[in-house]
Design a protein that fits this description.
There is one protein chain. The protein is of the alpha/beta class. The chain contains ten helices and twelve strands. The strands form two sheets. The chain has a seven-stranded parallel β-sheet with strand order 8-7-6-9-10-11-12. A five-stranded parallel β-sheet has the order 2-1-3-4-5, covered by helices on one side. Helix 2 runs parallel beside helix 10 (about 280-295) and helix 3 crosses helix 5 (about 145-155). It is elongated, with a radius of gyration of 21 Å.
Length: about 300
């Protein structure tokens, strides 16, 4: 029998208590799920299901664990743990992707159509300023992994010309894929940042990068807080170079009440709600990786430690 240690913490277990056993049974895995492991039993653990804030700090205490299966898409808080030498898999959940597509598409359309001038108006406001058609508005997606590609393709289906940027060359239907950051940013009117948090992506949107965007461009960040240089963004907003920023992620979360983003008239703050892992569909992904591990097959969504995602 396969021993699965659910080490994501008691609050998460309440959400996974029913659906994870069901998913494992449906995958044909004969598993025993435990939420606590005594020292004498650590060698018996085959798989660790985890999320940052869970009940493990030293993964070296589980010498026979075949993989650590993260319940979050982001792994930046795990890749630096020197005790985690087992294969690490990140969460790629269709429902998480679906939620991100809905959030990102909604905010791109909100800014494209200029809806804020009607929604926030505090007086009679008969302003018939017509937006251009979607095919006349240049959108750039920074990061063309599972989330970025899905968001870019959804926007392309609405006729937006979408450029997708990644460090490695890709071909994604409906997107113009480039590896030059300058090419991706030059003249972009709406930028959606969907990159992981790595040393290479920290402050990627700094002052020179923001200066490449079209005058009055909009920045949307549902990816990771450190992707944007906060001070450079504030300067660009204050000068009018950037007309608005909608931000869902931040360097410190929750965003401190005294942070300048809260009161800035050209910033919309949402509290890290762009996309969430849904326990029922996430359980299917976890069960599939355990099934593959037990069958001697390669794990899916395996993290490349050198890249950090």
């Amino acid at each position: 029998m396969t021993v699965v240690f659910f080490a994501a913490g008691p609050r998460a277990w309440e959400q996974y208590r029913d659906c994870l056993p069901e998913a494992l049974a449906a995958a044909g895995v004969d598993a025993r799920i435990v939420t606590e492991v005594e020292a004498a039993d650590r060698a018996a653990v085959d798989y660790i299901v985890f999320a940052p804030g869970g009940v493990i700090e030293d993964f070296g205490r589980y010498p026979n664990a075949k993989a650590v299966l993260n319940l979050w898409a982001g792994v930046e808080r795990l890749v630096g743990n020197d005790t985690l030498t087992q294969p690490l898999c990140r969460m790629v959940d269709p429902s998480l992707t679906e939620g991100m597509v809905e959030w990102a598409t909604g905010h791109v359309l909100r800014h494209h159509l200029g809806m804020d001038r009607y929604i926030t108006a505090d007086a009679p406001h008969w302003d018939q300023a017509f937006a251009p058609l979607a095919r006349e508005r240049r959108v750039t997606i920074l990061g063309t992994g599972a989330l970025g590609a899905a968001c870019g393709q959804a926007l392309a289906r609405l006729n937006f010309p979408v450029t997708g940027w990644s460090r490695t060359a890709k071909q994604i239907e409906g997107l113009t894929c480039v590896t030059s950051l300058e090419q991706a940013l030059d003249g972009a009117e709406i930028v959606v940042a969907l990159l992981p948090d790595t040393p290479d992506t920290t402050n990627l949107l700094d002052a020179p990068a923001l200066a490449r965007l079209a005058s009055g461009a909009v920045v949307i960040n549902p990816g990771r807080g450190p992707l944007i240089d906060d001070e450079a963004l504030l300067d660009a907003l204050d000068s009018g170079r950037i007309s608005h920023a909608t931000l869902d992620v931040f360097r410190t979360e929750p965003l401190p009440p005294e942070h300048a983003f809260w009161a800035h008239p050209r910033i919309t703050v949402t509290p890290h709600v762009a996309a969430a892992t849904r326990p029922r569909t996430a359980s299917v992904q976890v069960a599939e990786n355990i099934r593959r591990g037990e069958a001697g097959l390669p794990f899916i969504n395996l993290v490349d430690r050198t890249r950090g995602y």
